[in-house]
């Protein structure tokens, strides 16, 4: 069983920097867990503590349910791949991949078979005789992956392994890496600051900010129901609309979210009404994704928010409209067809397709 558990793990460096603050995280056997967060939030430090390259200041690291704080990196049966993967320049690709097996004393015949298998799985079977200098960046990264995985580690740790590659290659390799680790059933912790990478590769994503774990969940959970305002604002492009609203529960059983001069109406049978009803009389922050709002013409009957288009942005597969609703700026995904800004730029917004989450707190915290 290759599980990882962090129990109240804190890392304070000698200069007093609190890089990781009381983190609790469980990674299941065979799971692909992504640690996501901006630069300096402590992701690499978490990974290095799991690897045994840093000691936690307090707290416990458990591997396979056993306390691992005192185990050396070698005793942890892990493999690591970093952004600046270092291959041995004088060795061929085949020898680079075989190197960990040679160290472990694996006989030449099974060693050769394992190298062929791994190279085949990574699509580099035809370059085994070349030197690293004769490879493309993507091929070199595949060799680094092959060398890490050839010993069939129980746990695979990767720190921004794709960040030195161009975007096309990154997209290709991220599918390969997550496919390969799943095929091998190896538990993986993958560090990145790239949310597209995190959301496409992960079984679950752990989002960090300033050493503190903000949220852990499947990509759908953290995107759709972020646990904190920070996560709501951090995940997704364009950013989630975060609007301050006052909640009123009306006795004829509907709820309004008052945004200054205009209001959003939620019928009582909408489950989101009940979610916000207990904030009656309070100001809350309501989060809604651009794709949750449907643009309509301004003369559409019913409860329609009126917005003024500031500008449109065309992205090929989608168009975004940036609007002001009174003093509030929002962004809407033009799924129903492009909007022309027209003479006065007025636009109606039909409902709120989804209230992704209501987040008690102030938008300023985000
Ligand atoms: P990046 O994506 O830029 O690598 P990260 O999220 O992985 O960032 P860490 O490298 O874990 O972040 O660093 C977390 C914090 O700890 C940062 O403020 C960093 O400057 C600090 N830090 C890291 N290593 C040390 C060290 N050896 N001594 C003091 N502070 C350190």
UniProtKB/TrEMBL annotation:
<dbReference type="GO" id="GO:0140359">
    <property type="term" value="F:ABC-type transporter activity"/>
</dbReference>
<keyword id="KW-0067">ATP-binding</keyword>
<dbReference type="GO" id="GO:0005524">
    <property type="term" value="F:ATP binding"/>
</dbReference>
<keyword id="KW-0762">Sugar transport</keyword>
<dbReference type="GO" id="GO:0055052">
    <property type="term" value="C:ATP-binding cassette (ABC) transporter complex, substrate-binding subunit-containing"/>
</dbReference>
<keyword id="KW-0813">Transport</keyword>
<dbReference type="GO" id="GO:0016887">
    <property type="term" value="F:ATP hydrolysis activity"/>
</dbReference>
<protein>
    <submittedName>
        <fullName>Multiple sugar transport system ATP-binding protein</fullName>
    </submittedName>
</protein>
<keyword id="KW-0547">Nucleotide-binding</keyword>
<dbReference type="GO" id="GO:0008643">
    <property type="term" value="P:carbohydrate transport"/>
</dbReference>
<feature type="domain" description="ABC transporter">
    <location>
        <begin position="4"/>
        <end position="235"/>
    </location>
</feature>
């Amino acid at each position: 069983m290759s599980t990882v558990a962090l129990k109240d793990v804190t890392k304070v460096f000698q200069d007093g920097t609190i890089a990781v603050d009381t983190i609790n995280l469980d990674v299941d056997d065979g799971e692909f867990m992504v640690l996501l967060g901006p630069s300096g939030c402590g992701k690499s430090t978490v990974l290095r503590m799991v690897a045994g390259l840093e000691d936690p200041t307090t707290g416990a690291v458990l591997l396979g349910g056993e306390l691992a704080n005192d185990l050396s990196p070698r005793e942890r049966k892990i493999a690591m791949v970093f952004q600046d993967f270092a291959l041995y320049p004088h060795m061929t690709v085949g020898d680079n991949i075989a190197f960990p097996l040679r160290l472990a004393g694996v006989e030449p015949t099974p060693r050769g078979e394992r190298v062929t298998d791994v190279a085949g799985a990574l699509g580099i079977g035809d370059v085994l005789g070349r030197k690293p200098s004769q490879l493309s960046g993507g091929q070199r990264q595949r060799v680094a992956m092959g060398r890490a995985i050839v010993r069939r580690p129980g746990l695979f740790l990767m720190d921004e392994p794709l960040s030195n590659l161009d975007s096309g290659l990154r997209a290709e390799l991220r599918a390969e890496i997550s496919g390969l680790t799943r095929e091998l059933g190896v538990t993986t912790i993958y560090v990145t600051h790239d949310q597209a990478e995190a959301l496409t590769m992960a079984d679950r994503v752990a989002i960090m900010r300033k050493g503190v774990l903000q949220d852990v969940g499947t990509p759908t959970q953290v995107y759709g129901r972020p646990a904190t305002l920070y996560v709501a604002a951090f995940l997704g492009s364009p950013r989630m609309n975060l609007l301050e609203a006052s909640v009123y529960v009306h006795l004829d059983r509907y709820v309004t979210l008052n945004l200054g001069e205009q209001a959003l109406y939620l019928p009582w049978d909408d489950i989101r009404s009940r979610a916000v009803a207990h904030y009656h009389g309070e100001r809350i922050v309501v989060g809604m994704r651009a794709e949750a709002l449907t643009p309509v013409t301004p003369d559409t009957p019913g409860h329609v928010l009126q917005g003024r288009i500031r500008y449109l942005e065309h992205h090929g597969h989608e168009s975004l409209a940036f609007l002001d609703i009174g003093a509030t700026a929002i962004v809407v995904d033009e799924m129903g067809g492009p909007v022309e800004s027209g003479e006065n730029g007025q636009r109606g917004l039909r409902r709120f397709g989804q209230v992704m989450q209501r987040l008690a707190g102030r938008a300023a915290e985000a």
